[in-house]
Prior knowledge:
The complex is a heterodimer.
Chain A: H1 2-23, H2 55-66, E1 70-71, H3 97-120, H4 127-141, H5 149-158, H6 163-192, H7 196-235, H8 247-258, H9 263-274, H10 278-315, H11 321-346
Chain B: H1 3-17, E1 25-36, E2 39-49, H2 51-61, H3 71-82, E3 92-96, E4 99-100, E5 107-114, E6 117-129, E7 135-141, E8 148-152, E9 158-160, E10 165-173, E11 188-196
Parallel strand pairs in B: 1-8, 1-9
Antiparallel strand pairs in B: 1-2, 2-6, 3-4, 3-7, 5-6, 7-11, 10-11
Amino acid sequence: MKMRLLTFWMLTLLVAGFGYSAENGADSVAGTIVPAAATPTVEEPAVVEAKPATVQDQALADKFAKKKFKKASSVEKDPAGDKTVESPVPQKKDRTLWESFADAQKKLREVLTEKISAMKSGDWGTIWGFLAICFLYGILHALGPGHGKSIVVGYFLARRGSWKQGVALGTGITFIHTFSAVVLLFILYAILKATVFPAFEVGRVGIEKASYALVMLTGLLLMGIALRDFIRRKKDDGEKINTNASWKEILGVAAVTGIVPCPAVALVVLFCLLNSMIALSLVSSVVICMGMMVTNIVFGLLAITMRKGIDQSAHKFGKSAKYVYSAATFVGGMVVLASGLVLFSNTFALQV
Amino acid sequence: MSLLSKIVLVACGLLVATAFAHPHVFGGGKVQALFDEKGFSGIKNHWVYDEIYSAAMVASVDSDGDGKLSAKEGEQLKGAILGELVNSNYFNYVQSGADFLKAGSIQKFKASVANRRLVLDFVVPFSVPVGADYSMLVAVVADPTNYVQVTCDMEAAEVSAPQSIDVEYFGDSLEGLSLFRAFLSHVEGLYLRFKKK
């Protein structure tokens, strides 16, 4: 029964990773901001001739049949109306938990700006509230893709890790992710001053693509190791095969995954710098980093628990257990590969 | 279900679910679909960014440091923000049949600062001729990667058209439209159908 359960979850993980990749095509971190050099050339929109009815048209016709529609006015209005839109949090029904997290981040960012402005005006009593919000913002922000959770989970599914190693990988990825953002921003700020952010984005997008490619390579390596171990195990009893996580590997995974500079940290740091608050910019980056660490460490510990559970269940199958170990490593590698693939492909999402 | 199974379930669930929703830049938007005598002619956009991103981008072009945007500084922002969105159709996705329409170059661009927030106004031109029978379109203004969370309430969208064209519209979810599957579930579309009167 436990074996069946184990197989079920492995398949779930497999389908989840690749199903998302194939179906969604977009989720994370396409670069959007580059310097003025990229001003588009003038071109007219292509005229689209009326097309014959398609399946899509039928679906739309059905929608029109069901929905109450409005009629267009003949007056061109300013979409802003008389006043500027205040960047509203959407008040829509049926928001998912993760969309609510995104909304919460937006609210927290607004409060952060208020607190920074208050401190600039001399109200330093707000600093504790500011730091608490930075911490919470870090926790929520790291729940989004591109912060190494799936790589942490994939790695510890593939390799047996200790609790200490789980904490170390979560901490390492987050620390490098934050540190690279702060260092890149400070270097560019020293050179470019206030014009730094578009240049930061250009740097980030380049590093991002390289990092995702390396993550894919890491996944392939783990899958290769799994296949090699599988073949070795077929030849002998596999007692000598080491599937434990190593500190060297952990350092490599943390460096490859975390090297993408975090734009969220960079924006908060830059906002402090633009308000001439250098010390606060560093303190805020440390506290946001600590918040993000919490999220990644939790995922690392969950993954280690998962692998321990797999090992405990597999022991009951005697000699067949060795295949379960190889399968776990292979699936872990696939999770890492799929994560890198999804993140990499999403940098080119929906280009028309 | 054992404790272990529950842990695995939670871990798998989190792993999949967290592949969504990762905004770094926040913005609110309002849109207006535009028609002229020839048919559908474009989408008028009004975007307002969050204060932190606004400060970063305004500072990047504000060479005289007055906190306001001159025409020249506005043009620089156009390149810095919208220049890289050419291949993403400036986040204006219009489905016609089984494809997205390719946008023309940005028109009527204006950048300003209001309440310490960067405001962009611009028109993304399209061209779909009007005929005797209904043509149907779905317009979405959003970043499919969700790096920039542009929130547009399509139920509040405006549509303007000349007297000679009959246009009907409503805002609704994108459920069932496979071309828009990359977008988050809360993103709405503006459904349009139009014909000659």
